[in-house]
Specification:
globular; four-stranded parallel beta sheet; Asp/Orn_carbamoylTrfase_sf; Rossmann fold; Asp/Orn_carbamoylTrfase; five-stranded parallel beta sheet; binds phosphoric acid mono(formamide)ester; Aspartate carbamoyltransferase; EC 2.1.3.2; transferase; 39% helix; 2 domains; alpha/beta
């Protein structure tokens, strides 16, 4: 059976092109399963997975839980805000206590970049990074590329612009790694203060003008401004941000082609995207969410297969 080159999913940075192909082919099979009337397979009946979330989440948390249940795994859900973390327990103590209950896999979201990498060196379980600070969000990037592949036939050769707060975005970094690995062309667009200095070293071009960027691209991935990760203002006002970097119907209609609109969520309606764009037929935002379940089933299934070797 084909296998991933990694035992944990800590970031797209650690994957190769074949890993992504394998995840997508496996997700194709699971997508077929979750569209049947009986949406469950018995594949992981002997596996226990803990979802430990130290940061808020709607899509990722529910999507992982559903993916695990569709695979028939036993599932533990842990939310730091209601746990002994509040009494000062360390990350390793928390996870080792959970693992002593014979848990095989940990899905973790954490505010600190590298938290999953740290954990993978200290505990004996397979770790999936569900977002670590402003570092990586690998399953989001996989479901984003999978959704582009579904909509446009392939990712290689496509032109993708990522718009918004690139500096604080784990979605941006993981998407850049994933898209480049598959041969897409990538540009980023946003206020100069929200574009990291190193970005061009990743093979990405900076496009300061949103209209020019939209005229160039096949796909625009609109990101939220991550106010919760900012200790100061990075642009004068939200109104000015929206005027320069927000997407709206009038702007899209003025282009001489139809582009695909994506957003990882949560959306700030009226800031980076207006409702008439987010809810339009050009938007694949809810397809991204739907595909997230199949992608996460594929990742969990492939990593769990390695637990048995
Ligand atoms: N896209 C994403 O990570 O959303 P949540 O924060 O709701 O999980």
């Amino acid at each position: 059976m084909p296998a991933l080159s990694v035992r944990h999913l800590l970031g797209i940075k650690y994957l190769n092109e074949k890993d992504i192909e394998l995840i997508f082919e496996t997700a194709d099979q699971f997508k077929e399963v979750i569209n049947r009337s009986i949406k469950k397979v018995p594949s992981l009946r002997d596996i226990t997975i803990a979802n430990i979330f130290f940061e808020n989440s709607t899509r990722t948390k529910l999507s992982f839980e559903l993916a695990e249940k569709r695979l028939s795994a036993d599932v533990l859900n842990f939310s730091a805000s209601q746990s002994s973390v509040k009494k000062g327990e360390t990350l390793i103590d928390t996870v080792n206590n959970i693992l002593s209950m014979k848990v095989d896999m940990v899905v973790m979201r954490h505010p600190n970049p590298g938290a999953g990498i740290f954990l993978s060196k200290h505990v004996n379980a397979s770790i999936i990074n569900a977002g670590d600070g402003a570092h990586e969000h690998p399953t989001q990037a996989l479901l984003d590329s999978y959704s582009i592949r579904e909509k446009l036939g392939e990712v290689g050769g496509k032109k993708v612009i990522i718009v918004g707060d690139i500096l604080h975005s784990r979605v941006a970094l993981s998407n850049i790694f994933a898209l480049k690995l598959q041969g897409a062309q990538v540009k980023v667009c946003g206020p100069k203060t929200l574009i990291p200095k190193y970005i061009e070293s990743l093979g990405v071009e900076v496009e300061p003008d949103l209209r020019r960027g939209l005229e160039w691209c096949d796909v625009a991935n609109m990101l939220r401004v991550q106010n919760e990760r900012m200790e100061m203002s990075y642009f004068p006002t939200t109104r000015e941000y929206t005027q320069q970097f927000g997407i709206n119907r009038e702007l899209l209609d003025s282009l001489d082609k139809e582009i695909v609109i994506m957003h990882p969520g949560p959306i700030n309606r009226g800031v980076e995207i207006t409702s008439d764009v987010a809810d339009s037929s050009q938007s694949i935002i809810l397809h991204q969410v739907e595909n997230g379940v199949a992608i996460r089933m594929a990742v969990i299934y492939l990593l769990a297969s390695q637990l048995k070797t």
